[in-house]
Amino acid sequence: MAQPARFSVPERLVESVRAEDDPAGESWLAELPGLVAQRLAHWRLVPERVVEPGGRGSVVVYAHRADDLAPVALKVARPSAEAAALRVWAGRGAVLLLDEADGSLLLERLHGEVPLRSLAEPKAMLEATSLLRRLWVQAPPEHPFESLADRAGRVADRIAGRRALPAAVDAGPLVDEALEAVALAADGGDWLLHGDFQHGRVLAADRSPWLAVAPRPLVGDRAHDLARLVLDRIDTLAASPGPRGAARRRLAQLAEAVELPADRVRAWTLLRAVDTALGAFAAGDAAAAELRLEFAAWL
């Protein structure tokens, strides 16, 4: 089966991969149209459309099976542990993996145009914490997942390399406090985590109201999975009356909803906020960096 003649790699994906400045990434981009065509043929799929703007590490094609017209989604990405995590969850709280081949995933079709972010914040947060409770399971023996300790160590190294940026000099005390979170990884348990949980990675579905997608799975402290959720919709929160109090209430309410210590959630949130802030400084986006540092200070 031939690929659709108008297929092109989404621009967001191109920009993201090229920003890595990695020859392997460039090679993968060049091969991507052919990989999509191969997988469509392999699973006997009729393509409908490429999801735009799409993700920063994969391309998703909405399609249906040629034999029974069942709607599916084809995701082509570089090899990762995503499929292994989806197999563990087996559709419980996450999109169902139908098949896989060399980094390509055949998935049930969700409603990509209806993310959890489409709900008002209080309702979205309630649905998010309920979903996390379903996703948090003990990692199986001899699993392939990265440890939180390893990922947190890489984040700490990245922060150390950027804290000397001229724009980040005044953030020194926040940086020091955020880095204390790395020690928490030593006693966080062996929980399978989504790894990048946020409203945009939860989509409406037919067999369940909401399902998680696009995990970056790792094993460790469940409180880590709340960090990005605490930082979600940060622009809206910053523009609200009394943002400092609102930020603290959000963190406390999320921690209480999943019965985890608020101090651990705060620590991981500080680490993520500082990391993304320094990354924004490095990219020349001072406004985004300062907003995240301000949020971190509110906590």
Describe this structure in words.
The structure is a single chain. The model is unreliable at 1-5 (pLDDT under 50). Strand 2 and strand 3 form a beta hairpin. The chain folds into two domains: 11-109, Phosphorylase Kinase, domain 1, CATH 3.30.200; 114-298, Aminoglycoside 3'-phosphotransferase, Chain: A, domain 2 (Alpha-Beta Complex), CATH 3.90.1200.10. Helix 5 packs across helix 10 and helix 10 packs antiparallel against helix 11. The protein has helices at residues 11-19, 23-42, 82-89, 121-135, 148-162, 172-179, 227-231, 234-238, 243-257, 262-282, 286-298, and strands at 45-50, 58-65, 71-77, 97-101, 104-108, 111-115, 137-138, 146-147, 191-193, 202-204, 210-212, 218-220. The chain has 299 residues and is an alpha+beta fold. The chain has eleven helices and twelve strands. The chain has a five-stranded antiparallel beta sheet with strand order 1-2-3-5-4, with helices on both faces.
Q: What's the CATH superfamily of the largest domain, by name? A: Aminoglycoside phosphotransferase (APH), C-terminal lobe
* Radius of gyration, taken over Cα atoms and rounded to an integer in Å: 20 Å
Strand content: 15-25%
Largest sheet: 5 strands, antiparallel
- Helical content stands at 40-55%
CATH C-level class of the largest domain is Alpha Beta
Architecture per CATH nomenclature, i.e. the level-2 architecture of the largest domain: Alpha-Beta Complex
Q: Could you give the distance between the termini?
A: 54 Å
Mean pLDDT over the residues:
93
**Overall tally of domains:** 2
* CATH topology type of the largest domain: Aminoglycoside 3'-phosphotransferase, Chain: A, domain 2
